[in-house]
């Protein structure tokens, strides 16, 4: 359970970092970032698999790069649900998806390294 809470807070901080870097992508407060991270996690767990299966042929043809488009659409969907979380279009959502992927990759690596030590 503490690991899930830790990842939730890390994802909220990542959203705040991306909001400071990507124009057209904004989070009003840390509280809004926590809510957006929670809703994004739920959407990724419930809706994203359906989108992934429906777009599997395109994902295969693009060698998996279409997954970033799916992630951007999930971020854009969450922005329509959560107040205080704003995405001004598809390009900011795509840039945010790429940055969140990099941040997630780095934090997963750091957590794995700390567990092995």
Q: How would you characterize the overall build of this protein?
A:
The chain has 117 residues and is mainly alpha-helical. It has one domain. The chain contains six helices and two strands. A two-stranded antiparallel sheet has the order 1-2.
What characteristics describe this protein?
117 residues, mainly alpha, two-stranded antiparallel sheet, 6 helices, globular
The rounded Rg comes to 14 Å
Helix-strand pattern:
HEHHHHEH
Task: Report how far the terminal alpha carbons are from each other.
Answer: 21 Å
The figure for the number of domains is 1
Q: DSSP strand (E) fraction?
A: 5-15%
* Largest sheet: spatial strand order: 1-2
**Helix run count:** 6
Coarse morphology: globular
The overall average pLDDT, rounded, is 94
Q: Which parts are unreliable, with pLDDT below 50 for 5 consecutive residues or more? A: none
Structural class comes to mainly alpha
Q: Please summarize the sheet with the most strands.
A: 2 strands, antiparallel
Q: What is the number of beta strands?
A: 2
Instruction: Report helical residue fraction.
Output: over 70%
Secondary-structure blueprint:
Elements lengths: L1 H20 L3 E3 L2 H17 L1 H7 L1 H6 L4 H16 L3 E3 L2 H27 L1
Antiparallel strand pairs: 1-2
Helix pairs in contact: 1-2, 1-6, 2-5, 5-6
